[in-house]
Amino acid sequence: MRMMNAISVLDHITPFCEKYPQTAACLSQVYLDLTKAKTWKEVEVVEIEPLQSITLFFSSLQSFLNKPLYKSVTLAITFPDSTVVYYKVHEGIVPPTNNCVG
Amino acid sequence: MSNLIKSSSTSGPTKKASYTVPLPLLLSPSLLSRFLSYFTPFTIFSSTRKIKGKYDEKAQAVIISNREDMEKLWKEGFFGKGSLSRSEPTWFWRNSNKNKGEGKGKQKLAAEQVTEQRRLVRKRNKKGRVQNVGNVQQVVREEAEIVRMQEKERDEQTIEQTLTQEEENVLLEDIEKLILTTQEAFFLCYGLGILDIYDSQDCLLSVEESWKSFQITSNGFIMKYVVYHYFRSLGWVVRCGMKFGVDYVLYEKGPVFKHAEYAVIILPVHISQNSDNDVDFRNNCMASWSWMMNLNRVCVQSLVLCYVIIPPSIITSPTITECIKEYKVQQVLIKRCIPSKLK
């Protein structure tokens, strides 16, 4: 029987938290939200060079999405009380999907 | 470890009837009540133990770990947010195996489960509607298919449940905490006097130390606090408004009863030029008509523009109360109306 606690849960992202100390709090908040609250099973951290500045501008997001590899980005916006709001950003107009978004 | 033992007796989401106390105030016993307590089997005053909160500078939040305190703060005034829940900290209750899956009959449901059920029903209705084009035979066939789909969903759910039980076989520990914003924490500490704030080294912070500390890490802390304190003292339940694109939302009784009455946006008004760290907050606010109309459309609630008039640089080290008194608050209510309906 494994005992799960908050410290072991964050082990996965500890190296990234140490590498990016300024955004470590946001990273752990979103990671916990996705893995525990929304129960996504496999969540991996991917480092994306052009989006790593402190303030994210829409221009850098747009130039990132212009590359053929990525179609969309989901922004996770955090607030100190641990609210996380997710926004999906597409390149250009996309037709609506039938999945319930709300 | 103590959380593990306590959480096994988590009672789950609070019933609406249990929200009886508007604020977690301590009532000190008067002589009469002390006299009466000799005759009544129960005490009417709560303990004088203060709640312990840990201030995380990086996260700009105060964290409550004790399960009892978490429930007390939520029940008596809707303070804070569960770190793994939408509002009330019910993560452990929702994920303990006996409470998973769809509700049957009179089973208690947390807010997240209510939403989940509603979405499933909508999805089914949508499938039914989409397929309802065509003749009756086709409709009958599709209805049978929907029933089959529902059964398949239920089977999948139970398979999933047994799978997760088998593959994880984990003793679920309640790792959820209650997160208070710096404004909420300061209100509980300074305004109500029931919270003790400790820093990362477990040293108790005095009210003045917390005041100074919060200003350094939070942008525009004093302004936001003044508004929070103002509406709380008028009896409103003040919650974070980020999901609505505003600063705060005001509830008459609480988020579990009705939707929010008002959405508040804080706009600073500087009397004189002074260089303090509040200058960056909302200075570039496009307080233009188009901005305001955009916001009014997005928000279902009535919009309240809360102007905080910031005093000029104050004399050296006033007390917190004097500092707060210098700030003035004025509100403007914006509500869209349609002229033809006004007649």
Task: Describe this protein's structure.
The complex is a heterodimer of chains A (102) and B (343). Chain A has 102 residues and is an alpha+beta fold. Chain A has a single domain (13-90), classed as Trna Endonuclease, Chain: A, domain 1 (3-Layer(aba) Sandwich). Chain A has four helices and three strands. In chain A, strands 2-3 form a two-stranded antiparallel ribbon. Helices cover 39% and strands 17% of the residues of chain B. The model of chain B is unreliable at 1-8, 42-46 and 165-169 (pLDDT under 50). In chain B, helix 7 (182-191) packs across helix 9. Chain B contains twelve helices and twelve strands. With 343 residues, chain B is α+β, with helices and mostly antiparallel strands. In chain B, the strands form two sheets. Chain B has a six-stranded mixed β-sheet. Chain B has three domains: 22-33 and 47-86 and 174-218, MutS, DNA mismatch repair protein, domain I (3-Layer(aba) Sandwich), CATH 3.40.1170.20; 97-166; 219-343, Trna Endonuclease, Chain: A, domain 1. Classes of the chains: A alpha+beta (102), B alpha+beta (343). The interface between A and B is medium-sized, with 24 and 32 residues.
Write the layout of secondary structure elements.
The complex is a heterodimer of chains A (102) and B (343).
Chain A: E1 2-3, H1 6-9, H2 14-19, H3 24-37, H4 58-66, E2 72-78, E3 84-90
Antiparallel strand pairs in A: 2-3
Chain B: H1 2-7, H2 31-37, E1 51-56, E2 61-64, H3 67-75, E3 81-82, H4 91-95, H5 111-130, H6 136-168, E4 170-171, E5 178-181, H7 182-191, E6 195-198, E7 204-205, H8 207-217, H9 221-233, E8 237-240, E9 248-251, E10 262-270, H10 289-298, E11 302-310, H11 320-326, E12 328-334, H12 339-342
Parallel strand pairs in B: 1-6, 10-11
Antiparallel strand pairs in B: 1-2, 2-5, 3-5, 6-7, 8-9, 9-10, 11-12
